[in-house]
Amino acid sequence: MSAPNRLGSSRRQFLKRASTLVAAAGAPYFVPASAFGANAPSNRITMGFIGTGNQGTPIMQRFLAHPTCQGIAVCDVNTGSYGYRGERDFYGREPAQAMVNKHYAERRSSGSYRGCDAYRDFRDLLARDDIDAVTICTPDHWHAPMALLAAEAGKDMYCEKPLSLTIAQGRTMVAAAERHRRILQTGSHERSNPLVRQACELARNGYIGEVKSILTHVGEHNMIGPGPGWQPMPVPEGFDYDMWLGPAPAAPYHQDRCLYRFRFNYDYSGGQVTNFGAHSLDMAQWGLGTDDSGPVEVEYVDAQYLPAGSLFTAATHTTFKCRYATGVELTCTTAMPPVKVVFEGSEGRICVEHGGHGFVTEPTSLADVKLRDDQLLSTSVDHQLDFLNSVKTREKPCATGEIGHRSASLCHLGNIAIKLKTTVKWDPVAERFIGSVAANELLDRPSRNDWRGVA
Asked: Is the model more confident about 37 or about 120?
């Protein structure tokens, strides 16, 4: 296999095989229940799990809990290690492979199962013609390249939030899914939370009058990285660091650059604005009814950073404002709790936090309102099952790629205004800034090793 920073013959072989798969990609690879029984393996949606760290592993386990899913492959650049969010978190491809095999072994009379394969290079997983769908639970800088190749290979995709690293990449992901007729579900799981849904339904249906303003929270940094003068570290055995970097700029290895801590470095993420904002700003978009649009103006208010030369480059505290064509003003600020949205209307107020906690209405009677069927936004109460059902029915999931793209774009717009320390005008239809060459240059980023060239 060619080195991970070259897409030569291995990429050509992959795309040749993928093109054959796409020709028959109109439906997932499973056999009707009438032929084999409801729980027959041949009736299940076969899945590969790309990225098996502290987010990808729990999501994999949630999928495995559904009889509809048959996990047959995992992929991660890390063979297996500690060093994720918690000291006892031991993740990677071999731990994930063992989890899958153990899950199915416990359900077999023999007590043994070895049907899950493990890969270092995600392209090897995508090249398999017996995989219907994949999860993409990697650092943000990998979402677009993996999604584009997955779509070409005819795979449906469950991609973690934020959907993209840049606005331009998000649009290419949505376009690729549409072009290849693939399901693309964003991992914005608040869309499957009944209390969050009720809060947004009340806001959208006029129960607090006209929405005037929205407050959203993004959390503070929950890790401390090395400051100026930090020194590179040896790459751990079993960790393919060059493949981990992929399209990101070349950089010396340090343990605080990777795994859970990637989110604090702008090379791989958008900081906590995209990490938590992909939930709180998504909830705001949902409640406003702007799932296919966005604001027309974004204003920088404040940003604070660690000392120059620190490994963590993302802002530690931020505040920015977004104004919509309707006149609604949205403020996003670093505060606790880390995910929160407050809708202020002309006749009331609604507040809801992560997981549906802190659900408060003014007047209080709004919390007991039973909405009409035509006012309901979604019926999903299980984000993974919602994806599996979409793969089966080919109907849209509750958090489509377009929804994820627009919510991620709102995060990216805030970060662009913060970087430029200015107010920018935005055209949500053209997805371009008005009158700012500097801002439009930040719609995308350069890509190392030509990983961009997979569309």
From this structure: 120
Residue 31 has pLDDT above 90, yes or no: no
List, for residues 375-397, the tens digit of each pLDDT value.
Answer: 888 889 999 999 999 999 999 99
Q: pTM for the whole thing? A: 0.91
Asked if 134 and 417 count as a contact pair (C-beta separation under 8 A), the reply is: no
Question: CA torsion, points 211, 274, 388, 94, in degrees to nearest 10?
Answer: -160
Confidence of residue 372 (pLDDT cuts 50, 70, 90): confident
Average pLDDT, the chain: 91
| Three-class secondary structure assignment of the chain | CCCCCCCCHHHHHHHHHHHHHHHCCCCCCCCCHHHHCCCCHHHCEEEEEECCCCCHHHHHHHHHCCCCEEEEEEECCECCECCCCCCCCCECHHHHHHHHHHHHHCCCCCCCCCCCEEECCHHHHHCCCCCCEEEECCCHHHHHHHHHHHHHCCCEEEECCCCCCCHHHHHHHHHHHHHCCCCEEECCHHHHCHHHHHHHHHHHCCECECEEEEEEEECCCCCCCCCCCCCCCCCCCCECHHHHHCCCCCCCCCHHHCHHHHHHCCCCCCHHHHHCHHHHHHHHHHHHCCCCCCCCEEEEEEEECCCCCCCCCCCCEEEEEEECCCCCEEEEEECCCCCEEEEEECCCEEEEEHHHCCCEEECHHHHHCCCCHHHCCCCCCCHHHHHHHHHHHCCCCCCEHHHHHHHHHHHHHHHHHHHHCCEEEEECCCCEEECCHHHHCCCCCCCHHHCCCCC
Rounded distance between C-alpha atoms, residue 255 and residue 223, angstroms: 13
Six token digits for residue 373: 């069927």
* Confidence band of 452 (pLDDT split at 50, 70, 90): low
Predicted confidence (pLDDT) per residue in 394-423, tens digit: 999 999 999 999 999 999 999 999 999 999
